[in-house]
Amino acid sequence: MIRVAFVRGAYLNKFEWQNYNISSKEVKITPVSSYRPLNSIKNSTKLFSLFDLSKSKPVRYFANRTFGDSQVLFGLPKIIRDFDILHTADPHYFYSYQLSKLKRDKPLVSTFWDTIPFNNESTKRKKYIKKFSMKNTDLFICHTKRAKKCIEIEGFGGKQIEVIPLGVDLKRFTPIKKERKPFTTILFVGRLVKEKGVLDLYSAFKTYLGFSKYKKIRLLIVGEGPLKKELINKINKDKLNNYITVEQSSYDLINKIYQKADIFVMPSKATKTWEEQYGMVLLEALASGLPIIAYDSGSVGEVLANQGILIREGDINSLTNSINRLITYPVIRSKLGKEARICAEKRYNCIDYKRKITNIYKSLI
Q1: Exposure of 26 by Cβ count < 10 A (0-12 exposed, 13-18 middle, 19+ buried)?
Q2: Which of 54, 69, 147, 264 could, after both became Cys, cross-link 142 (CB 3.0–4.6 A)?
Q3: Count of domains in the chain?
Q4: What is the pLDDT of residue 209?
Q5: How many CB atoms lie within 10 A of CB 127?
Q6: At what angle do helices 198-211 and 316-328 cross, to 10 degrees?
Q7: How is residue 139 annotated by DSSP?
């Protein structure tokens, strides 16, 4: 049996893990995280990380000055002795550098998400960590062609690079026959930050309510982040409490929320150091059979693969008009929803990903 260390530090999460939770006699994958990752995974190995103390400014300062990054995993050298393959993600994190130093004759696989060339190189130390990790990686896994292009531009095109789209559990994320509802629900799922475009969506929704006679519509915003208070203040000020709801959800329950929605909107906007690298919520919406409206930003167009409605980034008027179109014409909404599910079945089944990644691991031994 091939033993794989799936090292993700503080960013171990369930939406990626569903593609690696493999029950096989050929491969055993063990998640390795910090003490307080995004999501706790059963049977994972937890190691202390300075990132666990990242709320402390002195700790952040010490980590950045000493290591160049707070994603240090203490005890990593000891546990990797028990594995045949090391699989990290994002070469700019310190645990990727640790694995690069410790790998010896073990194959090092790195999932490369970034789509902005030469990103995460803000200091000499960070740049050194990233380049050293990339140089010592044996195989890169990219989920988009855009990420692969990024590796090539940075000068590592000679490395082995596999482009494999991540998937979702199509049994969990699946359409259900909707009972007749008194209103149409627009759904947003994501971090409540400026670059996710949630304020653009708020503005477009408010404009739609202002000119449309159809008022049987609701906007459900699911997520947490620094803009939450501002959003709630706007809702109260504009007296839209009966139309807009902001709430949280665990990943274990998020599929139920998609099933209750009618339209999914993702208006992400690029910054100098970030753009939408993949967008797992797009896969979840496609699998749930929802028509999608999205800004054409980052990798969104590649992931959607001609599904849904793509509009120019930051074009709030087009966002408003697209919402109006899908509400006015339920036949179009239904057609796009059915096509979305077909797309998910063809491209984004996590079972297909498990098979492909298993074969890749086997090829390295």
Answers
A1: exposed
A2: 147
A3: 2
A4: 94
A5: 15
A6: 60
A7: E
Average pLDDT score, the chain: 96
Measure CA 26 to chain center.
28
Distant-in-sequence, close-in-space partners of 339: CB < 8 Å, separation ≥ 6: 307
Interaxial angle between packed helices 124-135 and 94-102, expressed in degrees from 0 to 180 and rounded to the nearest 10: 40
Q: Which two tokens stand for residue 200?
A: 């653009």
Is 176 part of a structural domain of the chain? no
By three-state DSSP, how is residue 187 classified?
strand
Closest alpha carbon to 188 in 141, 240, 247, 142 = 247
Three-state DSSP at 279 gives: coil
Contacts for 74 with CB less than 8 Å, ≥ 6 apart: 47, 48, 49
SS3 264: strand
Residue among 68, 149, 136, 73 nearest 107 (CA): 136
Q: Which helix (H) or strand (E) holds 125?
A: helix 124-135
Interval 26-60: pLDDT, tens = 999 999 999 999 999 999 999 999 999 977 778 87
Domain CATH for 40: 3.40.50.2000
Closest CA to 204 of 350, 322, 353, 327: 322
Q: Are both 226 and 124 inside the same structural domain?
A: no
Strand partners, 31: 6
Q: What DSSP line would sit under 319-354, residue for residue?
A: HHHHHHHHHH-HHHHHHHHHHHHHHHHHH-BHHHHH
**pLDDT under 50: residue ranges of the chain:** none
